[in-house]
Design goal:
Blueprint (H helix, E strand, L loop, with lengths): L1 H18 L6 E9 L8 E8 L1 E2 L2 H11 L5 E2 L3 H18 L3 H16 L7 E8 L6 E9 L2 H11 L3 E2 L4 E2 L1 H4 L6 H9 L11 E5 L49 E2 L2 E2 H37 L2 H6 L3 H36 L1 H16 L11 H5 L5 H13 L4 E9 L8 H11 L11 H4 L10 E2 L17 H10 L28 E8 L6 H24 L3 E6 L3 H33 L7 H6 L2 H24 L8 H30 L5 H30 L5 H14 L1
Parallel strand pairs: 6-9
Antiparallel strand pairs: 1-2, 3-4, 5-6, 7-8, 10-11, 12-14, 12-15, 13-14
Membrane topology: Multi-pass membrane protein
InterPro entries: HMGCR/SNAP/NPC1-like_SSD (IPR053958), NPC1_MLD (IPR053956), NPC1_N (IPR032190), SSD (IPR000731)
GO molecular function: sterol binding
């Protein structure tokens, strides 16, 4: 027993003597001595040896990798090959920023091959390799100057990676926020995930004992370095300074008021003062005039110059001009009324012919149901950017989404819900009998669908989770998504899955399915819509299965179907409104209910009410048909808005005309019918005409808006009023 203890003590002293050796020109590790497990990677040998003079081949290879000459090195040719392989793997992530790439290469080149490696590397733990029986390093401390580490982190922290629409730091540093988190992620032992094959602890302070250790402090490059300058998008310091640019944070104010509000107050105050002063001036003139009339004689009064005379002169001329225009409009309407009543067949026939011809354009009616084209202006910058993107890179995804949240303030996830959701999510592939999700989904690697869900941290397999470990494993994946890659191999950001990075406090989680879009392929689009309908039914059934949760869902087709459903539902309301208005107009115009004979329908003006509704409907169809002929697309919302507008205005005009005709008939019953109708239109026509002109101008003004929906709603009532 004592012999065994002495042997162990000797081994410990030997290891301690090796780990305490820190001299310039020496290596603490050199070459690879084996693996500590069957699936592990080769680990370095724990050997305190002088730095080896590099061969010509090794020197040239290191120069091609690291960019500088190494005379003596602490790495074998095999380790140089591994170094090159590992650096090439990270190259696509950081190559867009030369400074970050340069620092990354220099940092690991010096760590792997520096001839003074023993001065900043301290071996903490060794083991015996399973395949060779040699001593291998399994844990070290690497001493780094904090300023150097921070410079390394700063050069890479803002580098963008377009494939994930995020930052390269999310992949190479696990989303690190500072240099210590960055180097810890790089040093954590993760051999099976492409990380470090052994544990590297980065230390930023030397031990108190003088052991010969020093902090690494090689010169690194800033991201705005002249030679290795990164783009503005990857390095804020590289962005050009604009001294002439205005500081948008500073706003113009006068006291506590913004300058715009202050200017509006000043303008309105001036207008009020001017108008008030003008009225005071007029009142003063009137008062002086009365005083002059009271004091002066009649002869004086006849020669007095009234100041208001000049002011009223312009008004008199304007009134005379207005009277002339009004008289011409009255005569025009009187002629129209007389002609239509004198030749009813020609009037009605011609009107019907024009209306029918225009209404034939309904056969060319094109309905626009795309919400983007309805509500977004073609000149909107966001719309133009989308069009440019889709023309160069293809159409954007169709997004199917489910949001699951708790009904109370408690966390949404527990073990039962986790098991339930794993089971439900596995059904997405086969929701539709004819269309499988894998046939239409977006596949980044052309193998598996891009499904953004917390289940994909475990590649959709719950077998590795238990009631005791699910929370810790899920939290670990949320903290470091790179360690829990889904089947499509793109890290899942926790902010698109949960409302909180703390799983125990998350009140909701989101599941998003990305589906390819190809609107040019009608068969593919119909299959996609068919799957989306199945998705909607599946999501709706989730609520009945788990009533304690709030289940919200949407698909790409949802918005369009909701708009169409709303329009179709409102058609019943429109029909009922027309029927009620018809009954009301028929009864109100006649004053009593009609009897069974045909003369009673005329006497009670029941047919007049019916004809009025028909005229209004025909005006709508003629307007829609006309714009269909000229190629202007229509919307279903037109069927809701325009009939109500035209019906309300048209019925009012009919009541006014009928009432005026009734008054004239009672006052002059001996006049011919044509004359009475002519006189009625002469009195009522101008007001209806002016009202119509104002309404047309109002609607035409609204057509200046670029949005298709506003333009379509505005231009058709304008045409109808004309």
């Amino acid at each position: 027993m004592r012999a065994i203890c002495l042997l162990l003590l000797t081994i410990n002293l030997a290891i301690a003597s090796v780990s305490s050796s820190h001299k310039p020109g020496y290596c603490n590790t050199y070459g690879n001595c084996g693996k500590k497990s069957v699936f592990g990677k080769p680990l370095p040998c724990a050997e305190f040896v002088p730095a080896v003079k590099a061969s010509q081949e090794s020197r040239e290879k290191l120069k091609s990798i690291c960019g500088k000459d190494f005379d003596y090195i602490c790495c074998s040719p095999e380790q140089i090959d591994i170094l090159e392989s590992n650096l090439k793997r990270v190259d696509p992530l950081i190559s867009s920023c030369p400074a970050c790439r340069k620092n990354f290469y220099d940092f690991f080149c010096q760590f792997s091959c520096s001839p003074n490696e023993s001065q900043f590397v301290e071996i903490i733990k060794t083991e015996t390799a399973r395949d060779t029986g040699k001593e291998v390093v399994t844990e070290i401390n690497q001493y780094v100057e904090p300023e150097m580490a921070n410079q390394f982190f700063d050069s890479c922290k803002n580098v963008k990676f377009s494939a994930t629409n995020g930052y390269a730091m999310d992949l190479i540093g696990g989303g690190a926020k500072n240099y210590s988190q960055f180097l810890k992620f790089l040093g954590d032992e993760k051999p099976l995930l492409g990380g470090s094959p052994y544990q590297i602890n980065f230390v930023y302070k030397l031990p108190e004992t003088d052991s010969g250790l020093v902090l690494r402090n090689e010169p690194l490059r800033d991201c705005n370095d002249k030679e290795y300058k990164c783009a503005c998008t990857d390095c804020e310091e590289s962005c050009p300074k604009l001294p002439h640019a205005k500081d948008l944070t500073k706003k113009c104010t006068v006291g506590v008021l913004p300058c715009f509000s202050f200017s509006i107050i000043i303008i309105w105050s001036c207008m009020i003062v001017l108008l008030g002063g003008y009225h005071v001036y007029l009142a003063k003139l009137k008062k002086e005039r009365r005083r002059s009339i009271a004091e002066d004689s009649e002869d004086d009064e006849s020669t007095m110059i009234n100041p208001l005379f000049y002011a009223g002169l312009g008004k008199k001329r304007a009134k005379q001009f207005s009277s002339e225009i009004g008289s011409k409009i009255q005569d025009w309407f009187a002629n129209i009324g007389y002609f239509c009543s004198k030749f009813p067949g020609i009037s009605i026939g011609t009107s019907l012919a024009v209306v029918v011809l225009l209404s034939l354009g309904l056969f060319k009616l094109q309905l626009e149901t795309d919400p983007v084209k309805l509500w977004v202006s073609p000149n909107d910058p966001a719309y133009k950017n989308q069009q440019y993107f889709e023309s160069n890179f293809g159409e954007w995804f169709r997004i199917e989404q489910v949001i699951v949240s708790s009904k109370d303030d408690g966390p949404v996830l527990n073990w039962d819900i986790v098991k339930w959701w794993f089971d439900k999510e596995s059904q997405l592939e086969t929701l539709n009998e004819n269309v499988r999700l894998s046939d239409i989904c977006f596949k980044p690697l052309d193998e598996t669908c891009a499904l953004q869900s917390f289940t994909q941290y475990f590649q959709g397999d719950i077998s590795g989770l238990t009631e005791t470990n699910w929370k810790s494993k899920l939290q670990s994946c949320v903290d470091s998504p790179v360690n829990c890659l889904p089947t499509f191999q793109q890290p899942l950001k926790p902010n698109i899955l949960f409302d909180s990075n703390d799983i125990s406090q998350a009140k909701a989680f989101t599941v998003t399915v990305l589906v390819n879009s190809d609107t040019q392929n009608e068969n593919y689009t119909s299959n996609t819509i068919s799957y989306e309908h199945s998705f909607q039914k599946w999501a709706a059934d989730l609520q009945t299965e788990y009533p304690n949760l709030n289940i919200a869902y949407s698909t790409e087709i949802s918005l369009k179907e909701e708009l169409n459903q709303s329009s179709n539902t409102d058609i019943k309301t429109i029909a009922i409104s027309y029927l009620v208005m018809f009954i009301y107009a028929s009864l109100a115009l006649g004053g009593k209910l009609p009897s069974a004979n045909l003369y009673s329908l005329v006497k009670t003006r029941f047919t007049l009410g019916f004809s009025s509704i028909i005229i209004i409907l025909l005006s709508v169809t003629a307007s829609v048909g006309f714009f269909s002929i000229i190629g202007l697309r229509s919307t279903l919302i037109i069927a809701e808005v325009i009939p109500f507008l035209v019906l309300a205005i048209g019925i009012d005009n009919i009541f006014l005309i009928v009432h005026e005709l009734h008054v004239i008939s009672e006052g002059n019953p001996n006049l011919a019918l044509e004359v009475r109708i002519s006189q009625a239109l002469k009195h009522i026509g101008p007001s209806c005409f002016i009202s119509a002109v104002l309404q047309v101008c109002m609607f035409l003004l609204a057509t200046s808006v670029d949005d298709l929906l506003y333009r379509a709603i505005s231009i058709r009532p304008a045409q109808t009023r004309r």
